[in-house]
Design brief:
Helix content is 61%, strand content 6%. The chain is globular.
Length: 975
Amino acid sequence: MNAYEDSVRFAVLGPVRAWRGDQEVDVGSPQQRAVLAALLLRRGRPVMLGELLDAVWGEEPPAAAVSVVRTYVSRLRKGLEPGRGSADAPRVVVSVGDGYLLRIPEAALDLGLFEQRVAEARKLRAGGDPSAAADLLHAALGGWQGAALAGVPGPLAESEGSRLDEQRLAALEMRLDVDVELGRHGEVIAELVSLTGKYPLREQLCRLLMLALYRSGRQAEALAAYRRTRGTLVTELGIDPGTPLKDLHDRILAADASLDARPSRPPRPPEPEPPAESDPPVVTHAALPAQLPADLPTFAGREAELDRVRALLPEAGEAPTSVVIGAIGGMAGIGKTTLAVHWAHEMADRFPGGQLYVNLRGFDPTGVVMMPEDAIRTFLDALGVPPMRIPASLDAQAALYRSMLAQRRVLVLLDNARDTDQVRPLLPGSPGCLVIVTSRNQLTGLVAAEGAHPLTLDQLTPPEAYDLLVRRLGTDRPAAEPRAVDEIITRCARLPLALSIVAAHAAAYPDFPLSAIVDELRESHGSLDAFAGGDDITTDVRAVFSWSYKVLSAPAARLFHLMSLHSGPDISAPAAAALAGLPPREARGLLVELTRAHLLTEHFPGRYTLHDLLRVYAAERVHAEETPQERDRAVERLLSWYLHTADAAYPYITPRRLRIPLDPLPPLCLPLGFTTHDEALGWCERERSNLVSTVHQAVVSGHPGIAWRLPAVLWGFFYLRSHMHDWLDTARAGLAAARAAHDREGEAQGLADMAAALRSSGRLDETIDHLRQAMVAYRDLGDHDGRGSAVSNLGDAYLQSGQLAKAVEYIRRGLAIERVIGSAWGEGIALSNLGDAYQRLGRFDEAVDCLDQALAILRVNGNRWVEGVTLDILGTVHRRLRRHDAAVEYHLQALRTHRDIGNRWGEGHTLSNLGDVHLDAQEPEAARDSWLQALAIFVEFDHPDAETVRARLGRLEDAPPGARAQEAAEPGRTA
């Protein structure tokens, strides 16, 4: 023993802490505290380096894990032994072979003191001195400062934290038992009421509460406590209370004199709770985006404006010394976007970091302005940030976005902005970038606060307007009719949009003389004259649109104005057919007619968009020409089409899963069908933005049933593709719609969908809250299947959050419910989850037993999805038991199952696990092959595990041939 050892003490019963004398020692980051916790919990025995890696990171340590652990140990030594000279050997954290040992007396660790006091209290009570035992138990429990190992990450903290918390609960029950025995029943009632609410299945706590209430003269409340506990046990587990609780109940009913109270003593103060800690941020790597729209081949004029914006950048291709912001303003149709895109293409090669583009929809006819967080997500996606790693709050997203652009020269084009507040979060924070903003507003705040350079566009000059027509019509027709050209330019008031529309009309009818075009403009009663000074652009262009609209066939005109009822960014031909209630073939012919008339744009084969001003005009026409009932029917057909087509994709994406009951299809609505997994998944991906818009349109148009059912149908797609934001957004909207409609069935499903999305997003506390609400909703509905699923999923949420004891408790409760109601489907899932919980706790025999039972049930019921997951968990169990041949076989079975049903994400995880088995078995080439296959899948789905697999492959390649397995498993270790 030495002076250093004598002066140092540690705590693990709460946050991991250390003191030297009376001064607290900084024990570093959460991972460094995990290393210290591993050393402390070994209680004077060595911890090998590999065990430390597993304690902190589990089975997938980062590339530099060994050096990181050694750095942590070095920092701990400095903090714990500040007076030690550089030549002196460490005395507290001692090197032992390929590991470390913490040399401290047992009394220096609060856990040792706790266990010592509990053991002594047990002896005193058995020896007939309950009063002294109570004092010791109060002192022992008083040393706890919250949940054991609070804030410490890693597998060791998960398993050991659960074990220590169970010890605390057992000691607490003993202390309460002794207090009641000593006659302190009045003092402990409030505490017992709280504990029985928190742990409703612990019968000992109920027994003590009943006894304390009875001894306080509250017999009726004691019997009520028994009824509550019995009701919980019967409802949740399908069992009656045990004999001790039943006997006490009977004795209370009989007023047994042996239950009489004893004198009480003063109460003890309550124990404080520890503060919560947050998770560390996630680091990502950037991609090279090239998002600019195509430059207009017929771009004409604007030379003076181009000279002004070119002057904003240094000459000779030098990088700007600050963020350069060009704000292009002007009226609608003046050519802001055209000029911005042309300038951006001209400057693109000066920004090797890439080009970002987004339409902010600041003046969108649908009224749906893009929120800054949605724009940032679009940019982060283009920069290579996986959806699951994008933070939830706008501030955090903006910080990550600025970090991604740091030290990069990027051109950012923000089109159609509403105001400065919408733009500001999208500005880079580092010099060297160019930002081009277009808006119908002046954005004076951006000019005043951010130093933006304003450029307000005016009409084209007469020569520029003539050049625009020549570039679109060729030289011959304008040269042959110069007076007609002059009148067209005059009547269009040299507005680029109006000129472009007239030119497109003339080009569509090459045999028409331009004078005929002029006659049509005259017949519009001169409304184009408003372009000379009017400030309502929708009125100004109405006449220009009308001549294109009037030459349409009646069916094409009807389809055109119905298109304004669609809220999504584009529409497919089958969706347009459903909107109009037409056969798909007929609808496709009409779409061709509209495209040729330039009233629609086919931006991708079979997919169409409406320009914003054309959408305004179409909306005016649909309200003028269709009754409210027909408009409502059209919207219902469209929303139902999306829902039923998504439902048709559901069994291919999530095979054999229970389907959500849907309302019948409305007349003239023909949803799509699918034949393969890839076909179904591809449709969902192409329609993702429209599906999200459909949910929100269903909310506002009075279709709450569609609003909550569509997210339920899409959960498998959102999960497989990691579209967490869309999943949360639609589930939240669906839940709100169900609640507003007082639809309890929809609310229960919405709560379950929100919980699933939150769980996949890592927001486990919210997951648990929603699942608890779902349990109540399903109970109210008498839906035993839904309730059993919610209880089992609650256990899974506790499992993912590291609360393994609660996970086991709730998964077993869910399992009991599934068995009582006879749901073999739910029973198989619950057994699989329970096996996973047991394997994380190191209870391998119980894990294998549960997983084997799960497999048998899952196979009988055709649940191939969870069968694959269960086989993979069995492989992990056998690998941890060093049974490599059995592990390989289970992983291969899991692979076959995943591939049979198209679960590519599951396939990637199993291939990664299979590589680990091969590596443990000293088969590095086989490990490499498995990891390469896993990497291809993770890259395909933009899954964060791709980086982990890349790191493993890198370590395997860098290691010498004879040591590859060892190096890949333990980076940095030398022979």
